[in-house]
Every structure is written in C-alpha cells, then in structure tokens.
Amino acid sequence: MTDHNHHHDGGNAHGNHHGDGLAEMLDLDAKILGAYLDGVTQWAAELRPSPAAIVDVGAGSGAGTLALAGRFPGAGVIALDKSPDMLARTLEAARSLGMAGRVRTLEADLDADWPALGGADLIWASSSLHELADPEQALRAMFSALAPGGLLLVIEMDGLPQFLPDGFHGGLESRLHTALAGLGWNAHPDWQPALERAGFAAVERRAFPSKARPTPELASRFARTFLGRIGPALEGAAAPEDLAALAGLLADHSAGSMLDGGTLEIRGNRTAWAAFRP
User: Fold this and answer.
1) Which of 40, 60, 134, 243 is the most buried (most CB within 10 A)?
2) Is 166 part of any domain?
3) Per-residue pLDDT averaged across 251-274, rounded?
4) Do the domain assignments include residue 170?
C-alpha cells in the first residue's frame, strides 16, 4: 500500500488497486517515501531487539520484508501474500541483496485459512490489515502465531501521498482525496481497541511522517503513476471540473509542467501500532 489501498508496502487484497502498475507504484513509494521503514524497523528493534523469526503479512512487493531482513541480520523472514507475482518480485529482490538464504515466501489468501505460523517473534502488517474481510479474525490469528513476548507491528497510511502545492487549482488535491475517502480508499480505524480485544497488551501508537524531493524523473513517475490511477476511480465521485483539471495536469508534458519540472515535494504519513503477546 499495500499505501491508498495499494500501499501497501504490501497487502493481501490490494483493495481498489488491482491491475497493471501496482508493483511499480509500491516500489516507487518505497524508494521515495520509504524513510518510515527505517523509523518503524528501528522502533521494532528497540521493542524486540533480536527476533529470530519474522513474518511480513501482506508483503506486497517486499519493501517491508527487505527492510526487516536488513534491520535484523540474524533473523529469517517469511513474506506472506496471495499474489505469486508479488512474492516472486520479493524473492528476486532478496537474491539481489544477498538475502535469499534468510527470506522465503509463502502464498496464502488471508481471507481464507491462515497457514501454520506458530513461534514468530515479530509480525509486520503494513497497509494490509484494513484490506481483509475480517481484520479482527486476522488479529486473533496473528496473536496465535506469535510466541509469548512476541511483537506485532501494524502500519497504515494516514492519508494519500501528496504531490501538489496546497493552493494548486484552489486545493484540487485535497478535494480529490476527500472524494477518494468517500469511496473508502485508505480507510482504516484506530487499531488499538481491536488489538486489545484480540488479547494484545502494551499497545503503543506512533506517527512516522515522510517528505522527499527525489530526482525529477522519480518524482514525475510516482506522481503520474498515482494520479493516473485515481482519475478513473473518481468518475462520478469528483466534480467534473476537478476531473478536467486532473486530466489537464496529466496531459501537460511541457517544460513548465507541474509534474515534470523537478520541484515536487512529495509528502506522506504513516501511523504504526506496536503490541505484544503477553
């Protein structure tokens, strides 16, 4: 997101974002707004210093899997997702980084029967829990999969990635995000009550904001990939004049184009919940 129900740094269902371009968007998000991965994995290391067995639930293209394997060089990491293509990308990336011996993949539909995962020291669920049909059942399954004293980290996006200045077309991006929220994009609750109902203890919540000014080429690719995907979803949900403004923005490839001029500051924000199995 699995980050916009794609953000997923991962995801099981990837909600509203099936189709071509999902893997690229996940990879771009990790490259550009991936600073949160350092922050959340560092927090995990403070809370659970030396996990031996880690599971990335809804691994998507594997950004979280690889960040966890990098942060914890003594751990084995299982990337769990229902997409064989995403899992293949994750495994290939692990091989390229010399991590293939510590990373393995497991294909599973988390809305069906969960695989046997007993004894995990750390479970990571980034932009995937809200995608599931029954998140509370999933939390109970993750509780059972953790060893006593094990740590669960649930990560969600707070709002969609932002590319445009606040005043552009009188706040165009804000209105588009409001329309997407009305369609259920990126919708998630405060997970603390559900975590506690599942039996977790010592639940703590932290925010991890990200800002980036990537290379013009990367910034343009990310902006055009994301904004190009939301247009079709917004038909009938956003004002026609806003859809026209979005179409005009995407069609403009001139030297002064907002999306190609190299001045984009891309913003994002994640919230993470840490919880322990007593």
Assistant:
1) 60
2) no
3) 90
4) no
